[in-house]
Amino acid sequence: MLIKFINAFWVGGLICVVGQILIDKTKLTPARILTSYVVAGVILGALGLYEPLQEFAGAGAGVTLSGFGNTIAQGVKHSVNLHGWLGVFTGAVTSAAAGITAALVFSFLASLAARSADKA
pLDDT, tens digit, for every residue of 38-55? Predict the structure, then answer.
């Protein structure tokens, strides 16, 4: 049981370290790096390479942006199998709906609890 937590910690940390190195050593903007992580997750998920990583690392690979990309890829695959080519357009939104909704709800709740102020 403890090994699952250790694997989640070091794999998730390694994903973050790669992102930090890209920020520090390249001229890529953070937005491009974040988008690259999502696209990498989609590609690895579509190729079936992300699932073994997620099985090994659990939340360390599942809650990152690449995990979000994998969720999108899996949703599109599932929806295409059910609905044909229409699933290409509906699968991503359907599979990510819970995560997107949670992000919106918790962001709204945080905005109620926090007070904005001018930066000095």
Answer: 999 999 988 989 999 999
Whether residue 119 is contained in a domain is answered as no
Q: Is residue 18 part of a domain?
A: yes
Domain that holds residue 74: 2-113
**92 token code pair:** 């991503």
Write out the two tokens for 22.
Answer: 């890209």
What is the torsional sign of CA 109, 113, 118, 119? negative
Whether the Cβ atoms of residue 38 and residue 15 lie closer than 8 Å to each other: no
Domain count of the fold of the chain = 1
Tokens of 107: 């962001």
What's the pTM value of the predicted model, to 2 decimals? Answer: 0.77
Structural domain contains residue 57: yes
Q: What is the mean pLDDT of residues 66-85?
A: 90
Residue-wise pLDDT for 110-119, tens only, equals 999 988 777 7
